[in-house]
Every structure is written in structure tokens, then in C-alpha cells.
Amino acid sequence: MEERLQQLASVMEGELHSDKLMRTLYATDASAYREMPLAVALPRNEADIQHLIQFAIANKTSLIPRTAGTSLAGQVVGGGIIVDVSKHFTDILEVNVIEQWVRVQPGVIRDELNMFLKPLGLYFGPETSTANRAMIGGMVGNNSCGSNSLIYHSTREHTLEIHGFLSDGTKTSFKALSFDDFIAKCDLQSLEGEVYRQIRSILGDYNNQEEIRQQFPKASINRRNTGYAVDLLLESDPFTAGGDAFNFCKLICGSEGTLFFMTEIKLHVDRLRTKPTGLLCVHFNSLDDALRANLIALEHKPLVSELMDHYILECTASNLEQRHNRFFVEGTPEAILIVEYEGDSEEDIRSKAGQVETAMRAAGLGYYFPVIFGADRKRVWDLRKAGLGLLSNMPGDEKPVAVIEDTAVAVEDLPAYIAEFNTVLEKYGLYSVHYAHAATGELHLRPILNLKTEDGNRLFREIAFEIAKLVKKYKGSLSGEHGDGRLRGEFIPYMIGDRNYQLLKDIKQQWDPACIFNPGKIVDSPAMNTFLRYEPGVERKAIKTVFRYAGQDILGHAEQCNGSGDCRKSELSGGTMCPSYMASRNEKDTTRARANILREFLTYSTQDNPFDHPEIKEVMDLCLSCKGCKIECPSSVDMAKMKADFLQQYYDTHGVPLRSRMIGHVDKLMGLMAYMPGLYNWSVQNPIIGRLAKRIVGFAEDRSLPLLGSMPLRKWFVSKDKPSDRKVKGTVYFFCDEFTNYNDLEIGQKSILLLERLGYEVLMVDHAPSGRALLSKGLLRDARKLADKNVRTFASRLSADTPLLAVEPSAILTFRDEYVDLVSPELEADARRIAPYAMLIEEFLVSESKKGNISPAMFDESKRQILLHTHCQQKAWKLQGYTEHALKIMKGATVKVIPSGCCGMAGSFGYEREHYKLSMQVGNLVLFPAINRRSEEDIVIAPGTSCRHQIKDGTGVKAMHPIEVLYQALV
Description:
There is one protein chain. It is built from 45 helices and 27 strands. It is an alpha/beta fold. It has a seven-stranded antiparallel sheet with strand order 17-14-16-15-19-20-18. Strands 5-6-12-8-9 form a five-stranded antiparallel sheet. A four-stranded mixed sheet has the order 1-2-4-3. Helix 17 runs antiparallel to helix 18 and helix 33 crosses helix 45. The longest helix is centred in the middle third of the chain and has 20 residues. The radius of gyration is 30 Å and the shape is globular.
């Protein structure tokens, strides 16, 4: 087979991978399932797809189409060839503003489609919680809905035409047909004609019609994805008089790639809604109260009504990013209903909300009714959308499992259904989280199970069947939007009856007689508790690491990643995570891939050192350790931390490379060079010597090297004149980090002088370097020695009144971030206690400004236009706002924050020869273009030393530290 795969690769313009690494990365999606594929294909064009189809037929294998890989029912997991169209099939092909449609390829991201449509006044409605990386192909395959389905319904209602390939390789398209066109299609002597003749025979049979109408979910349930949508086709002309025109797109939507391989989709788009909206966020003392209140909310015609229960809310309280989005939460509600209303004005919306509140209070429902407007609405929705990932953030092996998370019933049945649902779980001693789409009768219900045990595996299936019976009782749909896949396919015969199920099997057989398109999904599915990500009874080895992982080990931390794919968003959606994926668009370069590879090898490795695998090293290589995942991943997966631990363990077997050792101990090297700064600076800037030095070390020859100051900052501080006797406002310690000490002398000088001019006593004690470079290169045991020294040095010195300040974010924030999990166990308590007192100077200035100790009058009022790029470490701790606010203490300053993520330098990463190209690609995503568009008056500011260096090399602009501007402005 390997030789045949190589032959296939030779005729494809795209990529074909059959190595263990790539197969492992594509063995899972966002579901509970895992199956090793035969190969992974990234087709570049339609000819590649035709080659794949012919190969599958000839070799009796299958094709599993995939876009973002966020499926929750195992739709894109399988043993054939995974066909990932997310990299090359990404074009928006055509738009018609007058007729309100757009043609796209399946790899177009939903949110980015709307960014394109917005200037045209158009909008594609269905909105999944994964909309910033979910792709149109996947939305069609699953028939996705989302929170606004009350207004925009599902993807099916917007799909006008689908182009692509039948299972015999024939290229064709499907669209709405008149009666005559339908008959003409039936007369075709081809596979296309056969599928039309078959559906005419099936739906023209009166007994089939009766059985379908009797057994399928209630027609009033908009969210129904049970099996193939023959119930919807039945309601079209020519089978139902006065019905919609027949369109096979209705069948393909929700078919999960089992019938047809899509390459192009034509979508209806709506006019952009322009009226203001507000969110009524009603707090309840019980879940049942919220569900009954939902019916009242719907009487007042909302756009959206979404539910979050207390489990979700508790998860958000412990997530660094989402904690900031809980601003509207009052007390400890059992549930919150988020209801969106539209109006002509804010007053109009408040009036509607008031009517709803009056009606709910009259029914004894709800205790707090805040109404949210403007930009704060996004914070509320971000909190709600984070639910899926946050649920995986529970330490330990018990997790909320996607097993019955997609059931939908008629909205009026929802309170009774949920009450019975919870009674079923109580019988098993289980409980569930409840969240999502109350307006349309669908809640995402996730019981807490441990799938690593035999009991958990058994309960997984038992509960699925129990709830299937309950859904059937209410004539609901087992899948509302996430699809059947291999999770629910087993229960479809029970849900729609054996006769109807046989019709679905007949359809699959007619469309795909060789079963090459995504087999085992919807029909002929294996038992739903097989091919799981976790095999019951697998013995787990104790894995020793240098870092501590609270309540878990490194494997447990990697397992927090549930595959939701937040790390696949592009730079257009903003944020930092994941810069390597943003630049390369390769799944291998996502945080998810790194977690997957760690989980796979740490679970199944037979090596004495489970980290000793080249596959882990390859996937970890392009991690920039930016810490974006620490805050932006809803499961708070800290990949930089795990990469550092991996490197240390890998070095234990293979030794530390010379370059890594040199970079890790850069403070010692710079200390030696500081005795002859002039000679060093001349050498690294000399075209011949500098290039030779970089070549020897393994640095990119096009990268400039950092220069030394005329003397170390510490030496200057000892020798400088001390302020004369004066009353001081307070005392601070200055952390003389290794980068400021040797490379950024002037910034360090101005920082100290600024603090003294503002009235503060500045102390500098003998302390160790921060160890940032050691951490970045994985030399954790050496870094621990420095961390221990620093914690011992400052444990008795720091307090809320006497903080430790620094100018370099990556250095000072080691106290808050790495030190607490790195220091020797006996120092952990001290490390945690002093962590909040280690601050950026900007944080301190803003805090003192709020106290009235620093005022705008201390600075001149000159007009300054500032372009600000903040450091990744600041973003990871939500500290970037402090730099902006510190600059705004100057009355004449206007600050525009560049919506950039990582600059691409990432410490030593951007210097290294093999990483230089990617480093510059990352910089060119947002940062460099924003700086190149600046006006002459703009001052470019970046707090990070690496960021300033990257900006200089990438744009030729010398960026300043914010302290330099503040010092200049002193009066």
C-alpha cells in the first residue's frame, strides 16, 4: 500500500502524507473518537480530488473529508485517507449583492466570509460557537445552526447550490429544480440519473411517505439532523403539492460527506441587520425556572435566547480570560438566560426588556435582569461561546462528555424533557452541564464520565441509549446540529424505525456503492463506544517533569485539549494563538496538534523516556512559546510550559545542543562581552565578521544581533548620584533583568530616573537573572536554580506597598507565571505569595495614578500619536491595557493599539536560521503592515525587547519603550 500511496502522491499537486506523525495528528477531531487513518491528503485542486476518488475505488479504501476538524460526533475520524481541504480550498469565488448570494470553496471560514460581506451590507447568518475557525464545508456537512437559529435557521436553509464529485468521480452540481428539470435528471443514464430515479421511487411510495412522517422528528423542530433529510425532501415538489422546488442540497446538508465530495457551495446571504440590539441576561435560582422563563422570553420575539448553567459559570470563574467577561454576573445563579432583543433605539430595547422582566417576575421567575449594550455584548457572547472548551478544563480523568449533547425537542417540551433527562442521570448517580440554544429547544447536555474506565465506557453507551429513548418519547431529534457521525449513528434505527433506516442505507448504497465516502457515519456505524480516544484499562506510567501541574501531570494537562480548534483561527480574528498556524496554515503547527502528539506518545510510548520521540520534537519545533494558548485556549492548555518540559526531558537523553546552551546562558555571555562593548558591537555589525559569527552559531544571516550598552545598568546604578533628601511617596525594588542590564541600558536608566522624578525611592539588590532564556530553551533545572535564588532574595522584601518593578515583560512575569510551578517545593508558598507584587512599571504607574500619586500635570501636554504593540507575555496575563493607560496619563497622547498577536521574534526563535522565515511571516501578518501604514507623526512603541528588535529588522523603524516616551514628557 505504501508504494501505491507514493504513486498517488506523484500525480497530485497537493500533499499526501502517510508518515506516523501526520496520521496521528489527524486520528482525532473534537470528539471522543480516535482512529488512525491510512494517510492524510491536502489537495490543491479538483484534479487532486479526482485522483483521490479513483485511488479509493481502485484500492478499496475511503475518503474522509475534513475542514477545521471541530466535529463533535467523530465525523472526520476514520481509517481511510483524511482529505483536508482547509488549506487550499479557501477562495470566495463570486458574490451577487442584488440577488444576495455568494459562491465559496469549502475551506472558507465563516467569520471571514462575513468580514468580506460586511462592506457589501450582507451577512451569512448561521453562527456556530466555533465561527472564527469553522469552515463552510463543515457547516454544510453538519448542517450547522448556532445561537441565532431562531432567526437564521440552519445552513441547509441558506444552501442554494453545491458543486463537486459523485463517488464514481463524475463532476456535477445540485440546485433547485423545476418539475421538468427533475424529470430530465431522472432520465440521465449516469450515476447522477440513478440517484434522482431512486429518490423518485422512495418518496413517491405512499407507504414510505406515511412511515417518514410518522417516525421522523416533529416538523416544528427546526434543529433536526437525524439521518438523511428525506423528511424535508418529502415536503418538496413533486412529492408535496405547493412544496419548495426539489433540491438535493437539502439531503447533502447534514450528510457528513457520506454521499458527495463538495468543492464549491453557493449560499444565500441576508441583508446586514443595522438596528441596535441589547442583551437581557436574566439570573435564576434554578434551571427549571430558566427553562420556563424561556417560553416567556420567546413570546416577546427575541433574536436569540441562550442558556448557561452554574457549571459553565463556575468554569469561567477559573479561566484567566473569561474571568474578565463575568462583569454582569450577580451572585451565584443556577442558570442565566441570555436573551437578545432588537429595537429602534436603546430606550426601545430597554422598554422590551422591561416588559419581559415584568412578565417573568409575575410568574415568580428570575432575580436579576441586567441589560447589556455596545461592546460589552461581545464579552457576554465570548463567555457563552467559551463553554465547550472550558468544560474540558476540569482536572482529573472525569470530563463532561459529548454523548447526548445535541438533542433537540420542541421548545414547549423543553422544561419537561430536561426534568426527565436529569432523573435518568440521577439513576446512574451522574449529573450534567446544561448550556446553549434554549430558544430552539436544544441544550448541549454533557454528563461527567471517565472514559478511561470500563464502567465509564459502558455508561457512555447506556446513557446514550436511555436518552435516545427519552428523545423518541418527545418525538425529538437526537442530533440538532452536531450531526450523527459515529456517536449517534448506531441509534438511528431506533429513532426513525427500521423501515426508514433501510431507506437511508439504500440511499447511501445508491450514491456510494463502493462505500468510499466517509463510511461508518450515519448508517452502518460501529458501536458508539468503540474507537474511542481513551482505551479503558490502559495503564498510565508516572511521568516525571520539572514543572508542577496543579492536580495533574503533564499528560493530564495535554488531555485538557478537547480538539475544539480555537488555535486554528487566523490573524483576521485577532488574538495571539497560534502564531505558527496563522503563518503556515498547517494543522501540524497548531496547539491542538502539539497536545495530540504529547497525549499519543506519553500514553503509548514503550521508551524508558516517553519524551524521546522525534515526532514530538518535530511538532514542538515551531511553537514560539508565546503563551497565547494559556489565555486564549478555553481549556487553558499551556503549551509553552509543556514544550519546555519536553525539551528538558529530550535533552536528558540526547544532550543539550551547543546553540541552546549558549542562548540559555546568554546573560553569562553578555556579561563577558560587557567588558569590551565597543569591540563586540563593531564585530556583530561588521558585514564579514558578523555574518561568520551568525553562521557558526546557527543564526539567520539576515538577522541583526542585539548590541550592548556602554556599561551594564547595574554598574551605572551603583555609580550614579542618588537623589537628595526629599519626601518620597513610596519605595520600589527595580528588577535589573539580564536584557535591560546589558542591551537596553538607556531604557533602564530612564525607568529609574522616571520613578525617582515621580517621587519614589528605587532600590536595586543583588539578584539572579530571570532565567527567561533558560526557560525558552527548556533548560529547566538551571532555570530552577535562578528562580529559587530570586524567590529567596525577594520573599522578605516584597509587599503590596513595596513591589518589584521591571521594564522587560518576559523577565518580570516569570515571577507570576513559571516560578510558582518551577521553584523547589519548599519555596512554592513564597513564590505564590510574592507573585502579584512583581509588576511591569506600567502597571505600577497606572495603580499610582488611580491613587492620585501620579497626575497628568507631571507631564507635558504635547500632542503624541502612538502606535502600540504589546508583548505576548503581557497579553497572556491581560496586562496590555496597563501600557495603554500609562501612556494616556500624558494628556496629549492618543494611543492606537495594533491588533497584532505575536511579533514573531519570540526570544531567540526569530534569530535561529531554520526559524527566521516563519518569524518574519508572523510579523508580516499584522504587525509589519500596520507599522508600514503609519503616518510620519506616529511614535511606534513596544515594551518587549524582542518585539522592538523584530520591528527594526522587519520595518526599519526604531520602536521605543513606553517608559522612554513618559520620561521625555516629564516637566
